[in-house]
Amino acid sequence: MSGPLLVLVGPMGVGKSTVGRLLAERLGVGYRDTDDDIVAAQGREISDIFVADGEPAFRAMEKQAVHAALAEHEGVLALGGGAVLDADTRALLAGHRIVYLSMDVEEAVRRTGLNVARPLLAVNPRKQWRELMEARRHLYEEVATAVVPTDGRTPDEVSRAALDAV
Ligand code: S3P
């Protein structure tokens, strides 16, 4: 199947962009990130889109961006943390090499903290992380062809583990 060599999924803050860039460099291919595609197409930050248009509108933009990137990009592709919420997107991911970068809730809270640029975590990050992961963990696992835990690992170690896993 043509399309990306490797797709990274997982929660925000897990290091998809950093690890994705390292992987692309190691594999000698390009790197693409659907969040960046949305920001470029919209000319505004994701947090601004959430505030002005609401989450459903963002999800529609995300779905379009993910589907376009899966069709066009042949390197390493990182998807926004919520892209797997969409059933059509999950179906489209079947047959691709999908690496789920995972982390536990405490690591997530440590890494993202109180970050207003991440609209889903603006209040009570620990509780919101727990709920987010309860709702999404099974979706990441459903689409993944490999799971790479990131807890206590550097981006370099994670990218090596991802290469070993695929
Ligand atoms: C989101 C994750 C973010 C971004 C948006 C929503 C989510 O992407 O798409 O803030 O629902 O988990 P990253 O995972 O790249 O941070």
From TrEMBL:
Superkingdom of origin: Bacteria
Record-listed E.C. numbers: 2.7.1.71
Binding of Mg(2+), residues: S17
Naturally occurring in which organism (per UniProt): Streptomyces actuosus
Reported function: Catalyzes the specific phosphorylation of the 3-hydroxyl group of shikimic acid using ATP as a cosubstrate.
InterPro entries according to UniProt: P-loop_NTPase, Shikimate/glucono_kinase, Shikimate_kinase/TSH1, Shikimate_kinase_CS
Subcellular location(s) of the protein: Cytoplasm
Residues the entry annotates as binding ATP: G13, V14, G15, K16, S17, T18, R118, R153
Molecular-function GO terms, alphabetical: kinase activity
Reaction(s) catalysed (UniProt annotation): shikimate + ATP = 3-phosphoshikimate + ADP + H(+)
Sorted UniProt keywords: Amino-acid biosynthesis, Aromatic amino acid biosynthesis, ATP-binding, Cytoplasm, Kinase, Magnesium, Metal-binding, Nucleotide-binding, Transferase
UniProt remark on cofactor binding: Binds 1 Mg(2+) ion per subunit.
Cofactor: Mg(2+)
Name this protein carries in UniProt: Shikimate kinase
Oligomer status and interactors: Monomer.
SUPFAM superfamilies linked to this entry: P-loop containing nucleoside triphosphate hydrolases
Keyword NADP annotated: no
Entry's family note: Belongs to the shikimate kinase family.
Pathway in which the depicted protein is active: Metabolic intermediate biosynthesis; chorismate biosynthesis; chorismate from D-erythrose 4-phosphate and phosphoenolpyruvate: step 5/7
Residues that bind substrate: D35, R59, G81, R136
Xref: Gene3D superfamilies: P-loop containing nucleotide triphosphate hydrolases
